[in-house]
């Protein structure tokens, strides 16, 4: 019924969709959305790793500080945080660098530093760091403690153990939810429209505010969101497959390999080579 409706209902105005799908304004908004997603996720991933290590620290002050950060940013909506950063100049009109409780070396206007784009990055990135910290912490805890103890007995320091032994193994647990967070961040960037920042949704909003073609322009935005999400999903699959090499003897076949195997088995193409699952040699020689 849905396919029939898409094919016969002229109110979808497919010619409008084709007209605006590749316009420069829409593509510019798509590029802005991709930039917001990449920068926010970089801040979120690096901040999440730091917060996760702080949460697992034996120092109670460090651990408590990370817990308070996570509690606050997970406990308040990201939309509220975006609006707060956009209006932070009302609380701090200027930002200064200097000696605490002493003279300032240099002072900037907050409205100059915290632009709409910067407010979008702060709101999205700092919020994402709180969620990523729990994902990274779960990955770290999934690694057997005996490996850390053995490395410590060999004289390795805690940070070196974390970087060389724990985190590489924890990636198998960290990667899948991180991919989901990236896809979610791509769609969450649409919230920046409330603070007049520019992204894909804002670009189509400006168009349909002028021509009143609301539904076709929303379909245009949805198509691009689906395209980018599909690309990210494929990338997530291969990254997961890469980090799964050390956890199983034979890797599952990729979709192209499955497609080729289907033709070999069911259509009778005899000259194609059968698909043999890849084996993880664990770094050993042949």
TrEMBL record:
Gene3D superfamilies: MetI-like. It is a multi-pass membrane protein. InterPro entries: AA_ABC_Transporter_Permease, AA_ABC_transptr_permease_3TM, MetI-like, MetI-like_sf. GO terms for molecular function: transmembrane transporter activity. It is found in: Cell membrane. Keywords: Amino-acid transport, Cell membrane, Membrane, Transmembrane, Transmembrane helix, Transport. GO terms for biological process: amino acid transport. It comes from the Bacteria. One of its GO terms (cellular component) is ATP-binding cassette (ABC) transporter complex. Residues 30-236 form the ABC transmembrane type-1 domain. The chain crosses the membrane at residues 30-54, 66-88, 108-127, 214-239. The keyword 4Fe-4S does not apply. The HisPMQJ complex is composed of two ATP-binding proteins (HisP), two transmembrane proteins (HisM and HisQ) and a solute-binding protein (HisJ). The HisPMQ-ArgT complex is composed of two ATP-binding proteins (HisP), two transmembrane proteins (HisM and HisQ) and a solute-binding protein (ArgT). Belongs to the binding-protein-dependent transport system permease family. This is Histidine/lysine/arginine/ornithine transport system permease protein HisM.
């Amino acid at each position: 019924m849905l396919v029939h409706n898409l094919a016969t209902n002229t109110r979808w105005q497919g010619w409008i969709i084709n007209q605006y799908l590749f316009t420069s304004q829409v593509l510019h908004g798509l590029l802005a959305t991709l930039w917001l997603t990449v920068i926010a996720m970089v801040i979120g991933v690096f901040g999440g790793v730091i917060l996760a290590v702080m949460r697992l620290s034996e120092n109670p002050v460090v651990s408590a500080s990370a817990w308070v950060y996570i509690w606050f940013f997970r406990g308040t909506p990201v939309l509220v945080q975006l609006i707060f950063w956009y209006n932070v100049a009302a609380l701090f009109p200027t930002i200064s660098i200097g000696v605490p409780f002493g003279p300032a070396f240099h002072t900037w206007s907050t409205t100059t530093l915290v632009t709409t784009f910067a407010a979008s990055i702060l709101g999205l990135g700092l919020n994402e760091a709180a969620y990523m910290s729990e994902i990274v912490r779960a990955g770290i805890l999934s690694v057997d403690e005996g490996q850390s103890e053995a490395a410590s007995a060999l004289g390795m320091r805690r940070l070196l153990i974390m970087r060389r032994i724990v985190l590489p193994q924890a990636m198998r647990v960290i990667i899948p939810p991180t991919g989901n967070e990236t896809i979610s961040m791509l769609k969450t960037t649409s919230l920046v429209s409330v603070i007049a920042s520019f992204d894909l949704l804002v670009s189509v909003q400006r168009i349909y505010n002028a021509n009143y073609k609301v539904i076709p322009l929303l379909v245009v935005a949805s198509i691009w969101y689906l395209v980018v999400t599909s690309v990210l999903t494929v990338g997530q699959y291969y990254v997961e497959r890469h980090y799964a090499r050390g956890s199983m003897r034979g890797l599952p076949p990729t979709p192209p390999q499955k497609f080729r195997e289907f033709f070999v088995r069911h259509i009778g193409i005899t000259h194609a080579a059968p698909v043999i699952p890849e084996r993880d040699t664990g770094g050993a020689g042949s």
